[in-house]
Write a structure and sequence with these properties.
This protein is an alpha/beta fold and about 550 residues long. Strand 1 (about 265-270) and strand 2 (about 275-280) form a beta hairpin. The strands form two sheets. Strands 7-6-5-8-9-11-10 form a seven-stranded mixed sheet. The protein has a four-stranded antiparallel sheet with strand order 1-2-3-4, covered by helices on one side. It is built from 15 helices and eleven strands. The chain folds into two domains: about 20-255, Growth Hormone, Chain: A, CATH 1.20.1250; about 300-530, Rossmann fold, CATH 3.40.50.150. The protein is about 50% helix and about 15% strand. The radius of gyration is 29 Å and the shape is elongated.
Amino acid sequence: MIDPHAPAQPGTPPPWAGPARLPVRPETARFLVLACVFLCAACGLVYELELVALASYLIGDSVTQASVVLSVMVFAMGVGSLAAKRLRPRAAAGFGAIEAVLALVGGCSAMALYAVFAWTGDWGGLWASGPRCLLVAFSLAIGLLIGAEVPLLMELIQRIRRQDPGGAVADLFAADYVGALVGGLAFPFLLLPQLGQLTGALLTGAVNVTAGGALVLGLFHGDLTRRARWSLLTVIAAVLALLATAAALVGDFERAARHAVYGKDVRVALQTGVQEVVITGGTHGRPLNLFLDGRLRVSGRDERRYHEALVHPAMNGPHARVLVLGGGDGLAAREVLRYPGVHRVDIVELDAAVVRLARHDPALSRLNGNVYGDPRVHVRTADAFRRLRDAARAAYDVVIADLPDPGITASTRLYSQEFYGLVRRVLAPDGRLVVQAGPVSLRPRVFWTVETTVRAAGLGTSPYCVDGRASGFAAGPDRSSGATHAPHDWGFVLAAPGARPPLRLAARGPRPATLTQRGLEADGRAAEGMRIEGVRVSTLVHPRY
């Protein structure tokens, strides 16, 4: 009897590397192996993108999350390739087992991460032991399993027909890279919008285990003992059953997790092409809360204080033409329309679904005063940066930047020197810009980076901060402190071309309910008391947030 582990004579292949007993012609067998490589590569890249996307949604700062996931995965793939050398004598059985484990781990990774986030909540303080550690663990496990695929597939393709190693590697990696391309395109354009993150990951796992199982049990069954065949078949069937059960329960799971995150008062929950939108309350005397990607964007308890502080200082002066960047909820426009002499309000909102809710959701439209029924209000669904590039010079008297906080990677360019240069171009010579720049006390360096960047664009600045309540409007750059945690203050930068604009309420304008002239002056002094010197300007090529 030949020992498969016995060392081979120099220059001769080991006994276990001989020709495989195939049920089809070698040419057909090679095509099937390469097709399996293609599918497995597509699935592997979907797992990677799934982890990056979910971590970015739940944690924020997509650059950091992508760097962590991809670097850990690539490292693990190298370790997995080395570890797979021990499985070469049993390449077929090893590959089948690896695909089953990979399908289970990768397919369930999104659901597991979302469950830990929903029922523990705190991603920020648990880097070493918690959800962030779980993200690294999944990246490591998936990378190890993906890395182990290539040596085993190389062994299988050589067993079909011995050929020049360089040619075999070229064929294998060509199929692998093309599969990665298809997986990379399928995730954002098909799986995510059509199935969502959880179902998309589970379906990917099912495709993964089916492809691997079909290759081993259909093409290389002759390399397996009867017991090994039945064992592998049982494992594959169990993995498919688990993935199918999880897919059937996704709806119930999402509702339970959503209630764990937002409470049981969820009225609206939808995943748009831009973000997750959730509305809670707004009926039976309960305050309305609007969450965008898990960040509390509007709180009915004290949104008026925030929006009055944002809008009214900027309306001291000419205000016939007003541009609101962001603010699709209509609340900033509500405050603008309180002023006589406003002829036109242009709202530029990236997510059309937010505008539809602001128009048609009874509670939200009541809160914004049905501003979208006013003929002076015009909405454009567009990116704020691109819209400013297309706008005419000196087109607006007031620009209100009610955008996601600086520090969220997706909004970094909306707080760049180039962005404020475009704002200056569309402002009238006596116009004003106001920017919500995040809480000063929680992230002072970020706030003063915004102020420094606005000044670098040639605008004079008057920073101020307004106290917030502990139950109020939360606009953090991540979900690290819980969905309903609020900052202690809201920071704003009022700016104008050239000279520093005065912090003053309009003499003949409406009286804000929560803001006085004396209070506004105190807000300016409070912000100056927290000034940080020496911060650098943020640009598109050198983001500082």
